[in-house]
């Protein structure tokens, strides 16, 4: 029976070498600069005259950026050669892989608009190298459930006040309150308090009681609801900082999946799935076997060569 260990050792050596390259500070700096350079290229292409004059140079620069990003993905995949599942557990890896791989899809390459959107998505990859930006993105993601509830309450308040405004001001101010849709648009613009003074003056010419309508709406929509939204975002920001701090206190270890945008590995210490545990045990056994094979025996001869592999637990 053929011994499968040499292939496993080869994957471990490949993963170790790629891991050294991807974890080097210079690697992250080069990729970060390439992302910024790619963003600058997109900005230059918006100037039609300059883009037409230097089309070949810009295309060559874009191809160089794509080649560099492809090499980065290959190195990151190679760093997880001994544990392939760990690569796909990290949402940042999945995002990067999709953005880079789509550039090679024929239908995407032929669609200029879609290709530019994908190139623009590469700018978001800077979050991998900027901890503060990563915290903000995590905070935005965690605030989405609370923001959805806020939007529902805000839409309800907007609709109620729009109906009241239509009943009170439809005949006198049809341009702003002629229908519930126009009334909602008018009140939505008043949420920022921009134009509120003119609206109050126009309302006072219709009825003195309009001041109650506008004052109550300004207090409820512009102060209460907006402050609630700010509170939701700040609370999510604190949670994102805690997640990032926890990820920094528990750095990545060989055989463990790296922390993604959520800052965790998907399970706490010691709570991995059965396949994860078996994979880690197999990796540890291979390492112990290599150490045992390199040790001299009692009579001074070189260590024995391993003849068979351990079976899984």
What does this structure look like?
- By secondary structure, this protein is mainly alpha-helical.
- The chain is built from 14 helices and no strands.
- Helix 1 packs across helix 4.
- Residues 1-7, 253-272 and 304-313 have low confidence and may be disordered.
The average pLDDT score comes to 77
Q: How many beta strands in the DSSP annotation?
A: 0
Question: What is the multimeric organization of the chains shown?
Answer: single chain
Looking at the structure, what is the overall shape?
Answer: elongated
Structural class assignment:
mainly alpha
Strand content: under 5%
Residues in helix, %: over 70%
Q: If you compute it from the alpha carbons, what radius of gyration comes out, rounded to the nearest whole angstrom?
A: 30 Å
- H/E series: HHHHHHHHHHHHHH
How far do the termini sit from each other? 20 Å
Q: Which stretches are low in confidence, meaning pLDDT under 50 for 5 or more residues running?
A: 1-7, 253-272, 304-313
Largest sheet properties? none
Count of DSSP H/I helices: 14
Note the topology.
Layout: H1 5-22, H2 25-45, H3 48-53, H4 55-79, H5 84-89, H6 91-101, H7 106-110, H8 112-121, H9 131-169, H10 174-177, H11 180-190, H12 196-206, H13 210-249, H14 274-294
Helix pairs in contact: 1-4, 2-4, 4-6, 9-11, 9-13
């Amino acid at each position: 029976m053929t011994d499968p260990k040499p292939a496993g050792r080869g994957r471990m050596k490949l993963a170790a070498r790629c891991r050294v390259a991807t974890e080097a500070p210079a690697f992250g700096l080069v990729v970060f600069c390439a992302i910024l350079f790619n963003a600058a290229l997109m900005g230059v292409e918006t100037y039609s005259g300059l883009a037409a004059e230097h089309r070949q140079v810009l295309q060559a620069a874009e191809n160089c950026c794509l080649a560099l990003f492809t090499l980065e993905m290959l190195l990151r995949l190679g760093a997880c050669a001994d544990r392939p599942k760990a690569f796909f557990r990290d949402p940042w890896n999945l995002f990067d892989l999709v953005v880079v791989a789509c550039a090679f899809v024929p239908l995407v390459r032929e669609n200029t608009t879609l290709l530019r959107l994908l190139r623009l998505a590469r700018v978001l990859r800077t979050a991998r190298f900027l901890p503060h930006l990563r915290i903000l993105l995590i905070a935005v993601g965690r605030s989405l459930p609370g923001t959805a509830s806020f939007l529902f309450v805000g839409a309800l308040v907007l609709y109620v006040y729009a109906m009241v405004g239509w009943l009170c001001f439809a005949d006198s101010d049809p341009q702003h309150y002629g229908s519930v849709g126009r009334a909602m648009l008018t009140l939505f613009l008043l949420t920022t308090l921009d134009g509120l003074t003119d609206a109050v003056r126009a309302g006072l010419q219709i009825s003195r009681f309009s001041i109650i309508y506008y004052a109550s709406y300004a207090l409820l929509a512009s102060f209460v609801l907006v402050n609630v939204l700010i509170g939701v975002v700040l609370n999510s920001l604190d949670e994102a900082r805690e997640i990032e701090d926890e990820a920094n206190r528990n750095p990545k270890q060989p055989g463990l999946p790296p922390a993604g945008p959520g800052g965790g590995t998907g399970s706490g210490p010691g709570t991995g799935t059965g396949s994860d545990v078996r994979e880690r045990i197999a990796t540890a056994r291979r390492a112990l076997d290599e150490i045992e094979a390199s040790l001299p025996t009692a009579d001074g001869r070189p260590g024995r060569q391993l003849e068979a592999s351990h079976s899984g637990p």
